[in-house]
Amino acid sequence: MKNYLADLAGKAVLVTGSSTGIGAAVAQGFSACGARVAVHCNRSRAEGEKVVAEIRKERGEAVLLQGDLSLSTEARRVVEETVAAFGRIDVLVNNVGGLVQRTMAVDNEDDVVDAIIDLNIRSVVAATRAAIPHFEKQGGGIIINTGSVAARHGGGPGASVYAATKGFVHTVTKSLAKELVGSNIRVNTVSPGAIWTPFHKETPETAVEQWKKMIPMGRLGTPEDLVGAYLFLASDSMSGYITGQIIDVNGGMVMP
Hints:
The protein is of the alpha/beta class. The chain is built from nine helices and seven strands; from the N terminus they run E-H-E-H-E-H-E-H-E-H-H-E-H-H-H-E. The longest helix is centred in the middle third of the chain and has 29 residues, at 110-138.
């Protein structure tokens, strides 16, 4: 029987925001398929080192890259360091992002808005811009963005700007898919639902229980629940005719 993920072996993959949570699980998932992985961190270097150590323990190949991807120059540097480490980049996973802080609309000062936009939008735009010339030189590539269920339903109180930035990610995925298809670059997004990660570590237990009631599967997701979607979208043998799509992984919480 054909191994449909075999084409990931040897691929050079950059997973931004991969020191913890979804990104860490995705980085380890790619490594398990034989890919060479650039693990990226910003503040959580110790956690990133642990991810790299786990990959190397399983005889995988990984490097740790550090940088604040809310800055375009840093996003470009991290992409270039991936190419320097592996000689190429085949898959870019734009996973870095976050709420930054929960702020009601009346308190959305410019500095807060700028921080959310820089982290969730500028990082995607800058890393993508840096990767495209390498993809074109190599004859193609894969971009997988991380969206959010918040882009589907607007998010909760105090998350309006965050939800809007993830809406941007969903929309730019479609725009880029059309723009880059002629260069054999596929672009898709994985949109997580309520996933139990450090992102939600300060969420009140009452809110968590309320989320569970909204999810047909009756539980929050785990980072491992997301891995298959990223691997699927990175494999040409599995998804070579798929581009511009939003893959929702949310236990049935939202069914667009």
